[in-house]
Amino acid sequence: MSLSSALLTAQSSLKATSKQTALASRNIAGSSDPNYVKRTGSLVSGAHGSVYVNVGRSADEALLTRYIQANSLNASSSTLATGLGRLSALYSADDYSGSPAALIGDLRDALQIYATQPGQSTTAGDSVVDKAVALAKALNEGTAQVQKLRADADADIANSVDNVNELLAKFEEVNSRIVNGTRSGDDISDFLDQRDSLLKQLSGEIGITTMTRADNDMVIFAETGVTLFEKTARKVSFEPTTAFAAGTGGNNVYVDGVPLSHSTFEQPYGTGRLSGLLQLRDQIAPQYQNQLDEIARGLIDIFSEEGGQTGLFSSSGSFSEPGIAGKVHVPSEYIRSEGGSSELLRDGHGDIYNPDNASGFSGRLQQLIGLVAEKRSFDSAVGGGTNLSIIDYSSASTSWLESQRKAAADSESYNSTVSSRAEQALSNATGVDINEEMALLLQLEQSFQASSRVLSTVGSMLDDLLNAVR
C-alpha cells in the first residue's frame, strides 16, 4: 500500500469513527425518550480503501402496528370501564342499600307493618310514605346522573375530535417533511420518530390502520376504511349537544361527511377512546335509563287505584315517555308535612276501598303487598328480564349493570396488559440500551486511536522521505 493510500484510508477511518461516535452519543441522548428509535451505523467500503457510515433506524413496523392496535383497544375498554364504574357507583354504596331494589324492599316491609296496624297512620302509614319518597328521589337522582354521564361523554367526544384534528394537522406537516426529505436524500430519522409518536397518540383516540407508499408517504384509515389522511388531513367534525334528557339522541362524528359511530368499529368494544365514549352515550347509559323507567312505570301502575286514579306514585309527564324515572314523585296529598295524609294509601281517594272509614281496615294494604310481589311484564328489549316482580326486576337491573361493569373491567385489565407488553416489546426492539452504546463508544475510541497512530506513522514516514530527498 502506498503512503498516500494509507493516508486516505486513515483519514476515512477517522471520519467514519467520528460519525459513529456522534451517532452513539445521539442514541444515548435519546434513550430517555420513549418515542426515540435507535440509530445504527453500518460501515460501507468505498474506492481506494475509503470507508463510509450508512445511518439506519432500528424501526419494527410489525411491532409498531401491534402496539397501535393494542393501544386503541386499551383506550376504548378503559373509557367503558370508567363510565360503567360511574353508573355502578350510583347505588352501590353501603352494599346497595340505596338501590331501587333495596328501597322497594324497604317499602314492602313498611307496607307489611302498616297492614298489621292500619289505624296507626301517623307512624306506620307515614313510614310507608317516607320510604316511597326516598324511592322516588333515588330514581330521580339516578336519571339525573345517567344524563350527566351522557353529557360528559358528549363533551369528551368533542375534545377527542379536537385532539384527532390537531394530531392529523401535525401529522400532515411531519409527513410532508418525510416525503421531501426522502426525495432529497436527507436524514429523516427524527421526523420518522415524530410520525410514529403521532400515530401512537392518534390510536388512543380512534382505531386506525396505515399504509406506506413511495417516498415514505403514509395514508391513515379509520377501522372502517374511512380515510383520515391522504396527502392532507381530512376534517373530522362533531356538533356537541347542548343539553341531554332521556330520549335525546347525540350527534354523530363525521369524517368528510361520513358518519363514524360506535357501530362502525369491528372490535367487540370498538377501538379508541372515541368509540368507548360513543357507546356510553348512545347505548349503555340509555339502556340503563330505560330500565329505571321500567321500574318507575311499574311502581306507578302497582299503586294506581281502580279507574286509573293516580296512587302513591305519580309522574309529571306521560306514562310512556322516556325519562319517567326522573319525574316520578309522591303527591303532596300523601305527605303529612305538606298537608296530606297517609290514610289515603289505606282508604283510597273518596274512601273507595274503605267506604265505612274503619280504622282497622287493611284490605287495600294487603292488596298492595300482593301487587308488589306479583310477577308482571317488562320490556324485554331494555334488558333486566321480563315476567318478574318489581323487586326481582330491580335486582336484575342491578345485576345487568354489574355484569356490564365487570366485563368492561376484565377487558380493561386484559387490554392494559397486552398494550403494556406490546409497548415493552417495541421498546426492546427499537429502543436504546445504554450499556451497548457505552461499550460501542469504548470500541470507537480504540479505533480512533489506531487511526490516529496510522496518521502519525504516515506523517513521520513522509517527513523522513522529504528529508531524504533534500
UniProtKB/TrEMBL annotation:
Localization, UniProt: Bacterial flagellum; Secreted
Domain of life: Bacteria
GO biological process: bacterial-type flagellum assembly
Residue ranges occupied by any Flagellar hook-associated protein FlgK helical domain in the UniProt entry: 102-303
Similarity remark: Belongs to the flagella basal body rod proteins family.
UniProt-listed NCBIfam families: flgK_ends (TIGR02492)
Name used for this protein in its record: Flagellar hook-associated protein 1
Source organism: Phyllobacterium salinisoli
